[in-house]
Amino acid sequence: MNNPQTQLTPSPSLNDQLIQQLKYLRLKGLLAHWDDYLKMAAQKNFSHGRLLSHVIEEECRIWREKARQLRLRKAGIAEPLLMETYPFDKQPKLNKKRIMALYDSMSFVTEHQNILWLGKTGSGKTGLATSFLIHAINQGYRGRSVPFAELIAQLFESMADHSEQKVLRKYLSYDILLVDEIGYVEVEPVQAGLFFTLMQKRHKKKTTLITSNLGFSEWDSFLKNTHLTAALIDRLTETSHVFNMKECETLRSKPTPPDERPTIAPKG
Fold first, then answer.
1. Residue-wise over 162-185: b if at least 16 C-beta within 10 A, else e?
2. What does the pLDDT look like over 127-159, one tens digit per residue?
3. DSSP string, 156-224
4. Which residues contact 46 (CB under 8 A, 6 or more apart)?
5. Same domain, residue pair 119 and 199
6. How many helices (H) and strands (E) does the chain have?
């Protein structure tokens, strides 16, 4: 027989004072499920301690989920592409086993390693990089996605009001940073220098994900500084995983040639 002193019975509904207190403490889960918790505790003969433990566990779960969603919203992800939706069957030349081993282990974050995807436009580089970023964010890390052109523009604009250090600190603060589409825009020497500074400061301290449609031998074409380009590539690849996707197929739909389009008969 259960000890009657440990049994709980449903109490009256929340009063206004309790409602305001729960709102003040931001215990929205407890506020929303107050009656449900008491009913469950009575049905399962929960002790006071077991009920408190259950409520705390649920509140932690709710807060963790809210924090995860907030990190995702602040990450600047244009399209939430997930690993589960990547069409590996259409990319037989891509080493899926190697990618998934890295993805599942999370070693790229814990060991502050970089990952670079190099290949033709439309081969799915951004999709893979984004899935790694989202995976890390879901595990509790702070991340950000930014196109290379936008990052370079921000660095350039920061020079006007001498806020370079502020912008650098912002991008240094992320546990994982995705710089997408490196190589689509040419940069001025000062911009290249600031980008190199950012990558150098993140080196071996934070994880950087990079996608580029150009091979390393072509990076000098937009950085326009041979020595800086060599130093940058050296920093990025020293502790990194590089996926060469030059031979991968494009995943984008190809437009139908005019001579293959269906003919629409004129009306009348």
1. eebeebbeebeebbbbbbbbbbee
2. 999 999 999 999 999 999 999 999 999 999 998
3. HHHHHTT-HHHHHHHHHS-SEEEEEEETSS---HHHHHHHHHHHHHHTTTSEEEEEESS-GGGTHHHH-
4. 8, 40, 54
5. yes
6. 12, 5
Residues 38 and 111 in one domain: no
List the structure tokens of 172: 């240094």
Residues 42 and 162 in one domain: no
- The H or E element containing residue 245 is strand 240-245
Place of tokens 């891509």: 94
**Which structural domain range is residue 26 located in?**
15-74
Residue listed under structure tokens 């409602």: 19
pTM: 0.83
7 domain-assigned: no
Which residue in the block uniquely carries the two structure tokens 């990190």?
A: 71
- Judged by DSSP in three states, 44 sits in coil
Give the tens place of pLDDT for each residue, 92-139.
999 999 999 999 999 999 999 999 999 999 999 999 999 999 999 999
Residues 225 and 156 in one domain: yes
| In-domain check, residue 116 | yes
Which H helix or E strand runs over 143?
Answer: strand 143-147
Please report which helix (H) or strand (E) contains residue 242, including its range. Answer: strand 240-245
Q: Are residues 128 and 220 in the same domain?
A: yes
Beta bridge partners of 146: 179
Name the domain count of the chain.
2
